[in-house]
Amino acid sequence: xxxxxxxxxxxxPGGSLRLSxxxxxxxxxxxxxxxxxxxxGKEREFIGRIRWNIGTTxxxxxxxxxxxxxxxxxxxxxxxxxxxxxxxxxAIYYCAASASISRWSGGSYDYWGQxxxxxxSS
Length: 122
Fold this sequence. Notes:
By secondary structure, the protein is mostly beta strands. It has one helix at 101-105, and strands spanning 2-6, 9-11, 17-24, 32-38, 45-51, 57-59, 67-72, 77-82, 91-97, 111-112, 116-120. Strands 2, 4, 5, 6, 9, 10 and 11 form a seven-stranded mixed sheet that branches. Strands 1-3-8-7 form a four-stranded antiparallel sheet, with no helix packed on it. The chain is globular and about 40 Å long.
């Protein structure tokens, strides 16, 4: 099982990025995924999650309205669209997936990507 994030980079404040999380050896079908981030010196932070089959999402309040999660079922890929980026969004962003819907519902994640760096700076 492998989750591979891509799309990170350096962006100016106010800019946008779309992160991708491509899965191999694993299908999101009948389960769900999530996005986390970890800023330097801080604990890992949950950003939001998506229930794969029906596409419902939850985004934490701190980034709601700026970040959205989506998926492409044909590509077995999850996305994190980030708009109006701020310097405090600088972090390593990780995607995660659960082995079953019950584990996803309980907030347990079994598979993790390697992370992609997002830096917001002028």
